[in-house]
Design goal:
With 206 residues, this protein is mainly alpha-helical. The two termini are 26 Å apart. The N terminus is likely disordered.
């Protein structure tokens, strides 16, 4: 990706735009405002990118993608108070980092299937930990929405490593029934996690 904002940053050196004057930023046009935003928050946003991604080759792309996302949010960014703006930018960079890391992981075959329920293992790459931590955080958020039987089955299978026979003995049904119930429970939790992810993305865009 071309470093469009790096170019604009250099152009800003020719502008009489105070990079840190909050009281005058309301008089800037959109381009001047985004130049001010870049100059004022670039270092903080870069620290956030480094926090969630160890790959130095992705840091600049994360910042560029983040600023592209922010182009459609200029009115909101103008209206936010300083602390709120910092939080908004932090979330934007974090979500952008997650998106790019998921894309990279998929391309390299790192993604852990929700069907397997595999947990992070020692020695995996830092980016894998970020992706898996995000996934398990989402699972924790939707866990209370599952029915008690669904939670019992998923806990038994993926956290306690129990067999279909052991689960069927506890629930008083056949092993074939357990497999069908497990399939429905997995599909249900996947739907909930997708919806949770969409809700989080929509909330971030408000």
């Amino acid at each position: 990706m071309d470093c469009c904002w790096t170019v604009k940053k250099k152009e800003s050196e020719k502008m009489d735009v105070p990079p840190t004057t909050l009281t005058e930023k309301d008089d800037m046009d959109d381009q001047e405002f985004m130049v001010w935003l870049y100059n004022h928050y670039e270092e903080r946003m870069l620290r956030t990118a480094k926090k969630y991604c160890r790959d130095a080759f992705l840091w600049e792309e994360i910042l560029q993608e983040s600023f592209l996302r922010l182009l459609s949010r200029i009115p909101k960014l103008r209206a936010l108070k300083e602390g709120e703006r910092v939080g908004y930018l932090t979330v934007t960079v974090r979500n952008t980092a997650f998106t790019l890391l998921r894309k990279q992981a998929k391309e390299r075959g790192w993604c852990v299937s929700l069907e397997t329920g595999a947990l992070p293992v020692e020695g995996c790459l830092p980016e894998e930990w970020v992706i898996q931590r995000e996934r398990w955080n989402t699972l924790a958020a939707v866990w209370p929405q599952l029915a008690p039987t669904e939670r019992f089955l998923l806990e038994g299978r993926y956290f306690q490593q129990r067999s279909d026979r052991e689960l069927s003995d506890d629930l008083g049904c056949g092993a074939n029934s357990i497999r069908m119930m497990m399939t429905r429970a997995r599909r249900h939790v996947q739907r909930l996690m997708r919806r949770e992810g969409e809700d989080q993305a929509a909330e971030q865009q408000k």
